[in-house]
């Protein structure tokens, strides 16, 4: 109940603070309206200030009305706080008896326990005297004491049962009262919030009506009407004065031989009228615009180059031109343009800021619905499973060496140490902002590492223990290609989540002997055991979701890359390290602005971002954006495919694992990692 009172007071403070903010804003708008009324009343633009003044005053009134509603709501909340305190006080008085019941059952319980112990002691004492052959008087005396203890114990048992019944009844009633109070409190708080939200919503509707009225007034304020008002206020009459011969007036520019003349001899009886009409195209019954029309639109908007405004006047011109461009777009193609989204912290990226981020792929998405045509080739890994030549019986498996500490001397009776490494490569191709177009391929390699001393053990023992292991958590593997030269397996195994393998020990010994002969100084020898391909579920299987947006004009190129860390793709989510993004940009870049900072390589015409580790503990839980604006001397640029690289230690995307079976060997190290293969994004 105390927390309920605190919440009520905090809600009062919140609404009061919101009312203060609205009041300050309303005063500022009133001040701005007065300023608009004091602006210059000369020239053709003067009547427009009246429209601004009226609209701004109405906006101020809308916010003042919200202040009034919020203040009334604060009174209601305060009244509820007072009533709530009265209810709490009354409830405390009503449940006071429950506290007594609690104390009664506690004291009765303690007394009952002592009486029970006394009863047991007296009964035992009486029985002991009887067995030891004590006098009848002593036995009778002990019997009297046992009887008293029995009666006392019986009385306390009955008293405790009564206290327990009363306690349970009181507690149930009290708990129900508390629950009723809390339910009533929550309902009342929700009603207050509903009133608050309704007041704010009504204000927003009123503000929308004021803006609509403002736009209507501006549409009705034509160029012709403004010129006419100026003529009526400054004109000397409607009668045309007598015509007089007019001379040609010459305007000469210093240092020039030629001149330009302005003639007044043209017929001016009829005023010139200029009319601009934008006609909407006929509605298209199809679902797609013609390619030519869209290209023309892109060209028309793309040719408007705007620099960030540095003065108030330029700022107003900037906004006007953006509104004009989008008005053309809206009228021609019937698209509703969200004008407020034009104003962006970075103005050159206004065309990119209102894109919808695509990182909510449907759960029911199936790879079967995707087209695995040409783009798949671009997402292939260099370790693709399409070729099994390196694992065929006629080829030697990949045997490498790794630098490590000198191994201890191994005896034939020791459990021989073996290390395993799982390395996976994730390849992905992201197309625009559509998650259904993401193509993913994940491959993996399993490598065993043998210490140098194991070769001597194998060669000195004609029948070394067979090295057997179980590949676990294989349900996500859609293809497994073992090294057929070294490994055996039973194809009839029915468990889809595990698969057993055992080595051809003679072949393993032979390969390790050859490896030691080729590199006798090595401490360890690595052998590729098997390759596998992981079943993927589109964008849901990628550890870093990407969406790229380009805006290309003849003079500038704007780029935004949205990314989101996807822990669901990993069995044990870990940080992505060494994150780098490489973006080629043509069009002769002369200047680059980026956020966060990137490095531009003018020789390769590429920009490079190097990011810190990305994980759930990063800002925004690993979501963010890279932005850049490129100034060009030979634009426009052509949107290209960007590349991303990263790696993660300690986990895999498949979750596959390995367990040694049998005796004679022990697993000294189990290393897991994954990294990017070809990880690309197109617009």
TrEMBL record:
Residues 234-272 are annotated as: Disordered. InterPro entries: AH/BAR_dom_sf, AP2_Mu_C_sf, F_BAR_dom, FCH_dom, GMIP/FCHO2-like_FCH, MHD, Muniscin_C. Its main location: membrane. It comes from the Eukaryota. Residues 1-226 form the F-BAR domain. GO terms for biological process: clathrin coat assembly; clathrin-dependent endocytosis; synaptic vesicle endocytosis. This is FCH and mu domain containing endocytic adaptor 2. It is found in: Membrane, Clathrin-coated pit. GO terms for cellular component: clathrin-coated pit; clathrin-coated vesicle; plasma membrane; presynapse. It is a peripheral membrane protein. Residues 415-683 form the MHD domain. Keywords: Coated pit, Coiled coil, Endocytosis, Membrane, Phosphoprotein. Residues 112-184 form a coiled coil. Belongs to the FCHO family. PROSITE patterns: F_BAR, MHD.
């Amino acid at each position: 109940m105390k927390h309920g009172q605190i919440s009520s007071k905090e809600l009062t403070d919140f609404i009061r603070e919101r009312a203060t903010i609205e009041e300050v804003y309303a005063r500022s708008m009133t001040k701005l309206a007065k300023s608009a009324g004091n602006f210059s009343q000369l020239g053709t633009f003067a009547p427009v200030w009246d429209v601004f003044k009226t609209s701004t005053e109405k906006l101020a009134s809308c916010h003042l009305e919200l202040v009034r509603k919020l203040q009334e709501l604060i009174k209601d909340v305060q009244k509820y706080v007072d009533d709530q305190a009265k209810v709490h006080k009354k409830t405390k008085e009503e449940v006071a008896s429950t506290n007594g019941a609690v104390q009664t059952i506690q004291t009765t319980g303690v007394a009952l326990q002592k009486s029970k112990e006394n009863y047991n002691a007296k009964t035992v004492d009486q029985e002991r005297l009887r067995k030891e052959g004590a006098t009848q008087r002593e036995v009778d005396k002990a019997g009297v004491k046992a009887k008293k203890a029995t009666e006392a114990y019986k009385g306390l048992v009955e008293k405790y049962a009564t206290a327990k019944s009363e306690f349970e009844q009181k507690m149930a009633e009290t708990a129900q009262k508390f629950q009723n109070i809390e339910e009533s409190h929550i309902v009342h708080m929700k009603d207050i919030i509903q009133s608050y939200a309704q007041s704010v919503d009504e204000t927003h509707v009123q503000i929308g009506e004021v803006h609509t009225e403002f736009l209507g007034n501006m549409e009705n304020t034509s160029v012709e009407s403004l010129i006419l008002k100026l003529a009526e206020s400054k004109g000397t009459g409607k009668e045309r004065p007598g015509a007089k011969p007019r001379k040609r007036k010459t305007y000469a520019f210093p240092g020039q031989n030629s001149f330009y003349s302005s003639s007044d001899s043209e017929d001016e009886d009829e005023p010139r009228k200029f009319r601009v009409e934008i006609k909407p195209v006929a509605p298209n019954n199809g679902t797609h615009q013609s390619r030519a029309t869209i290209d023309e639109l892109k060209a028309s908007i793309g040719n408007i180059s705007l620099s960030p405004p540095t003065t108030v006047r330029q700022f107003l011109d900037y906004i006007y031109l953006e509104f004009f461009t989008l008005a053309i777009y809206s009228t021609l193609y019937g698209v509703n343009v969200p004008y407020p989204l034009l104003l962006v912290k970075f103005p050159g990226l206004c065309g990119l800021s209102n894109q919808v981020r695509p990182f909510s792929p449907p759960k029911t998405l199936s790879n079967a619905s995707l087209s695995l045509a040409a783009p798949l080739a671009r997402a292939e890994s260099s370790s693709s499973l399409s070729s099994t030549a390196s694992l065929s019986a006629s080829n030697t498996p990949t045997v490498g060496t790794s630098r490590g500490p000198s191994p201890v001397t191994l005896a034939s009776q020791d459990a021989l140490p073996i290390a395993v490494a799982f390395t996976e490569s994730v390849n992905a191709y992201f197309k625009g902002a559509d998650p259904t177009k993401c193509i993913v391929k994940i491959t993996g390699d399993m490598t065993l590492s043998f210490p140098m001393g194991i070769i001597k053990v194998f060669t000195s023992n004609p029948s070394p223990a067979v090295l057997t292991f179980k590949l676990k958590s294989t349900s996500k593997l859609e293809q497994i290609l073992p090294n057929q030269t070294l490994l055996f397996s039973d194809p009839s195994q029915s468990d889809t989540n595990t698969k057993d393998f055992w080595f051809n020990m003679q072949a393993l010994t032979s390969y390790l002997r050859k490896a030691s002969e080729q590199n006798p100084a090595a401490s360890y020898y690595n052998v590729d055991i098997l390759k596998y391909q992981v079943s993927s579920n589109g964008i849901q299987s990628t550890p870093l979701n990407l969406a790229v947006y380009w805006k290309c004009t003849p003079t500038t190129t704007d780029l935004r890359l949205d990314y989101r860390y996807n822990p669901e793709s990993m069995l044990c989510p870990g940080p992505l390290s060494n994150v780098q993004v490489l973006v080629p940009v043509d069009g002769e870049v002369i200047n680059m602005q980026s956020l966060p900072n990137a490095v531009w390589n003018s020789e390769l015409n590429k920009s490079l971002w190097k990011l810190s580790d990305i994980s759930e503990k990063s800002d925004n839980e690993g979501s963010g954006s890279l932005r850049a604006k490129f100034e060009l001397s030979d634009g426009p640029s052509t949107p290209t495919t960007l590349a991303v690289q990263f790696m993660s230690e300690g986990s895999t995307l498949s979750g596959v694992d390995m367990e040694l079976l049998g005796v004679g060997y022990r697993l000294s190290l189990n290393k897991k990692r994954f990294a990017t293969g070809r990880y690309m994004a197109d617009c």
